[in-house]
Design brief:
By secondary structure, the chain is of the alpha/beta class. It is built from 14 helices and 17 strands. The relative contact order is 0.15.
Length: 416
């Protein structure tokens, strides 16, 4: 095993610099903990960006991958894959869906949802009804279609011209959605909890209103649950908190607990719109990916991890509120279950670095919201330790913020 400096040198020489500067080299994980190339241990409260919900190297998932890799790893979708059919059955049985399509990532299944929505509308109504309304501050992926769907200019910058067919509305604002819809609208696409958009949960009125509007206009309602699904919020699917059923739903991230797999789930009203040749993938839903996802579902059901996420989310929120009480630069808490955000009055990038230096991995979205998404198997002791580190860091950051504000005021007064 080489040290950190060796790998950083390789990266600087040979990798495209799409992820900016990276100083940490992670080489091993177990449960909610990871270790870097120099042997230092960290609490992983980012979990691969809400991917490793069962923790790193869960024995059931690891065993399923190893066993299937030794039997059949790939055969293409020209042939029926038993594990794929079984996974489709399982996902349909625990959801609203009638049928599934499998791919390798969240971006790919979101692309599939866009294609299916357009094809459904064209098949039923003819040409000219192809627009999809998405939300400001949303995030749906990095392909050309999905950076266009994503309501964040920073994701789109430099890739213009963007694709036609997407219009934007304000999240949690039904009037804004109605204003964005036209006779050309075929679907509305929304995350029940915006992850990259600041860990912001939809209001019940918003999601229920969307369902009513979409039903009235025969417009498909698409829920992107790539980050908030699979037990993360305290329900297997986040939309279950709201009593609202979509027409299409996309899953990825935690579905494979780190093994790449994505799923597009469709209700009966549009499930058979895809016909032979209308969509496809070489690697999607391969035997190993589906074996991993089946193991994930087994563990989630057996161990009641969605319910555990609700309990541990409440515990973690309480631990944070107790230890962070009195830090006046904290503007509030967001999210559901073990998908939490801490909104700050100042940028959060420095807090992320200081947490890592103390052995806690988190990240920052929208510039000032700390995102906390630990594995669903996280313990109370691990939550307590994370809260302690955050209290130390955010108290220090608050002092620095106020000191900088006071200095700026003094300089402004002196300049007068």
């Amino acid at each position: 095993m080489h040290d950190t400096a060796y790998y950083l040198d390789l990266a600087a020489r040979y990798l495209m610099p799409t992820y900016g500067e990276r100083s940490m080299v992670l080489v091993r994980g177990e449960g909610a903990r990871v270790w870097d190339a120099d042997g230092r241990e960290y609490l992983d409260f980012l979990a691969g960006i809400a991917v490793n919900s069962l923790g790193h190297c869960h024995p059931a998932v690891t065993a399923a991958i190893r066993e299937q890799a030794g039997i059949l790893m790939h055969c293409s979708n020209l042939y029926l894959i038993p594990q794929q059919a079984e996974l489709a059955r399982r996902l349909c049985e625990v959801s609203f869906a009638s049928r599934c399509f499998f791919a390798n990532s969240g971006a790919e299944v979101n692309e599939g949802a866009v294609k299916l929505a357009r094809l459904y509308s064209r098949t039923k109504y003819g040409a000219g009804r192809h627009e999809i309304v998405t939300m400001r501050n949303s995030f749906h992926g990095r392909t050309m279609a999905l950076i266009t769907a994503t309501g964040q200019e920073k994701v789109q910058k430099g890739f213009e011209p963007l694709l036609d067919g997407f219009r934007y509305a304000v999240f949690n604002d039904l009037d804004s959605v109605l204003g964005a819809m036209t006779p050309a609208t075929c679907a509305v696409m929304v995350e029940p909890v915006q992850g990259e958009g600041g860990v912001t949960a939809a209001t019940p009125e918003f999601l229920r209103g969307l369902r009513e509007i979409c039903t009235e206009r025969d417009v498909l309602l698409i829920f992107d649950e790539i980050q908030c699904g699979m037990g993360r919020t305290g329900r297997l699917f986040a939309h279950e908190h709201y009593g609202v059923t979509p027409d299409l739903m996309t899953l990825a991230k935690a579905l494979g607990n780190g093994f790449p797999v994505g799923a597009l789930l469709a209700a009966e009203n549009c499930a058979e719109t895809f016909t032979p040749g209308s969509h496809g993938t070489t690697f999607g839903g391969n035997p190993v990916a589906c074996a991993a996802a089946l193991a994930v579902l087994d563990v989630m059901e057996r161990d009641g991890l969605a319910a555990r996420a609700e309990c541990m989310g409440a515990y973690l929120r309480g631990a944070l509120a107790q230890r962070l009480d009195g830090i006046d630069t904290i503007k509030g808490y967001r999210g559901l279950g073990l998908m939490l955000g801490i909104e700050l009055a100042h940028p959060g990038a420095e807090a992320v670095k200081k947490c890592a230096a103390r052995g806690l991995l988190i990240n920052c979205t929208m510039g000032n919201v700390l995102r906390i998404v630990p594995p669903l198997v996280v313990t109370e002791a691990e939550c307590d330790r994370a809260a302690e580190i955050l209290a130390e860091v955010l108290a220090e950051e608050a002092q620095n913020f106020h000191a900088a504000a006071a200095a700026a005021q003094t300089n402004a007064g002196g300049g007068a």
